[in-house]
Amino acid sequence: MGIGAAFAVLAGLLHAGGAAQGPNNRAQETVINAIKAEGLRSSEAPVLFHTLTDVFGARLTGSPAHLEAARWALERFRRWGLQNPQLEPFEFGRGWELEKLTVEMIAPRYMPLIGYAEAWSPPTAGVLTGAPIYIGDSTAIDIARLDERLRGAIVLTHRQQTEFLRTDRMQPSDGNGPVQTGNPPLPGPSSATPALEMLTRLKAHAAGVALRPGAMEHGTVRVQGNRDTARNEVPSVVLAAEHYNMLVRLVQAGVPVQLRIEVGARFYENDRNSYNVLAEIPGADPVLRDEVVLVGAHLDSWHTATGATDNADGVTAVMEAMRILASVNARPRRTIRVALWAGE
């Protein structure tokens, strides 16, 4: 993680907040030179980025890892001498943490499968071992007829995945007009029975776990989740499309397939809050100090990866920018406030 992003943040802050009190160009130049020297010679950006991605890793909002990362950032702000450091609570809902995941094919041969449990998925009832039941082409009536066969079963819920996310959205710098933000549309899996109705029926029949394909390629899985998932819903795992499609082909060919699945997950109900991390450098101008320049990045990430570019790089740039300003004793005319958001 380089210092370039932090310098970009600093440039914006200097423009909005004022590098020093008053219009003295020489004083401002002195501050700018000090900022450059501090950033180039004593950057903490690599350590900050390493801590966020390698040490804390995934930082799902409401999880112990996110709270630990928030407390770490708060301690850094205090150490650097920023003013009014605090954790700002807001009600988010129950937390969740993945504690264990096993996804394996054990017949007709052994093969570890690539997959990840959805966030807020309930845990399975221990280790589930058995032949998967394929219902991707089954109507709601067909599913109802399976009845007791579904109890505790490993269920392949959708057809083979044939559509994939292959192109990103246009980047803002590439267009001349308005550009759509956010993730590009993700091709959904296909099934004869609508997903909501299917999952309702699986829940009614006490299915053990639902497996569905992802829409990425080459073993990549993009897995998110829903914080409102009820405790008694069917546990859910998303498999890499190549592995899921293989399982469907084997089952349709009549090959005896055996899977071993376990989802170990924990819900956290005692504290339904999540926390933003706030701190600031007070403005020095009596007229302008009540004006606030706000700089921020979201500290949380999804649970399936380390959140390196979503958004540890942004957090690192913001934290390093504030550290540099505090280190050189910058006195901006307006108050500069940093916010590391939870819940994106």
Features of this protein?
344 residues; alpha/beta; Aminopeptidase; Glucose Oxidase, domain 1; 5-stranded mixed sheet; 8 helices; elongated
Please identify the top-level CATH class of the largest domain.
Answer: Alpha Beta
Overall pLDDT, averaged?
92
CATH architecture grouping of the largest domain: 3-Layer(aba) Sandwich
Percent of residues in beta strands? 15-25%
Anisotropy-based shape? elongated
Biggest sheet strand order reads 4-9-8-7-6
Radius of gyration: 25 Å
CA-CA gap between termini: 21 Å
- CATH homologous superfamily of the largest domain - what is it? Zn peptidases
CATH-assigned fold name of the largest domain: Aminopeptidase
Number of helices: 8
Secondary structure tally: strands: 13
* Major sheet details: 5 strands, mixed
Q: Name the structural class.
A: alpha/beta
Structure overview:
This protein is an alpha/beta fold and 344 residues long. The chain has 2 domains: 4-93 and 272-341, 3-Layer(aba) Sandwich (Aminopeptidase), CATH 3.40.630; 95-167 and 183-268, 3-Layer(bba) Sandwich (Glucose Oxidase, domain 1). It is built from 8 helices and 13 strands. It has helices at 4-17, 25-41, 45-56, 64-79, 140-146, 195-204, 241-252, 308-327; strands spanning 83-91, 95-107, 111-112, 115-117, 128-130, 133-134, 154-156, 209-213, 236-239, 258-268, 273-281, 292-298, 335-341. Strands 4-9-8-7-6 form a 5-stranded mixed β-sheet, with helices on one face. A 4-stranded mixed β-sheet has the order 1-11-13-12, covered by helices on one side. A 4-stranded antiparallel β-sheet has the order 3-2-10-5, with no helix packed on it. The model has no long low-confidence stretch (mean pLDDT 92).
